[in-house]
Task: structure prediction
Amino acid sequence: MAPLGFSSQIRLDTTARMHSNGVRAPLYSELVGVSMGISAKVSARISTQLKRYQGVLSAIQKKDISEADTVTVINDILADACGYDKYHEVTSQYAIRGTFVDLAVRVDDTIRYLIEVKAIGIELKDIHVKQAIDYAANEGIEWVVLTNGAMWRVYKVHFGQPIEKILVCEVDLISSSPKSGEILECFGNLSREGFSKSTMADLLHQKQVTNKFTVAALLVSDDMLDDLRKEIRRLGSGIKVDIDYLRSLLVNDIIKRDLIDGEEAKAAAQNVKRLQRAASRKKSSAREVEEQPVVAPVEDGSGSLPRAIVTP
Result:
């Protein structure tokens, strides 16, 4: 699935937030549902094993272990929590064009995703994943994971000029509940049982459509503003409001500025327009099908071959 009009990175809103009153805002996955295709048994395995590894990760974080030792722990998590055979399905130092990526997950001779690992004491930055993204693009691999053990980021590679990446999931494995929808969604989709091109594409599409930038773009779209104007007219006994006034009000006084300006906001606005056009085409096609006459065969009274009549 190749999204159109996206910047070099779209950061989808996938992490928990705290309201000003100290109450935790609902997680994305708690509101829109977990997108994955795993059984309750696999889900239980993931949460049980990740709970065990939370203690391991906290301990090695205090010791500030090396990158090589962090890779070993990641390998064990892939085996115990995600269900991979770490001896046959997880390759260390995977060679690509004369250089190496820390880990590659391969099932049935197909690379599912690459993993770039940093030492657990290193804060993750976009520059850390750039090389792995380039390698993945050269090999036609769509998914890349960046992790230091504590933080996990899942990226979709967009094959274009230039190569682009979309941050789909970002979770803190140490501080999050291993039973939370956020964790199960991320690791469920990465697991041996849950990973597939279709489930990952569904996850990406779901978060593209529901992330904060897309919702902001929808709020200032013509269709939404027209509905808002109609509702104001209904409540105000016929008061007419100009669409441009409503758009200015939302942009300047209601919606946070960073959700309207910037590369991420522009990309989301382009994506909304693309989705609206696709929805309009789909609606038009459905209407054309409904309007086509229904041709039903009936028998005439003479016992000859059925003839067709058009029913309204």
User: Anything to note?
Assistant: Confidence is low (pLDDT under 50) at residues 1-21, 23-35, 295-312. The beta strands are 9-11, 90-96, 99-107, 110-117, 143-147, 151-158, 164-172, 294-298, 307-311. The chain is about 45% helix and 20% strand. The domain at 9-195 is CATH 3.90.1570.30 (tt1808, chain A).
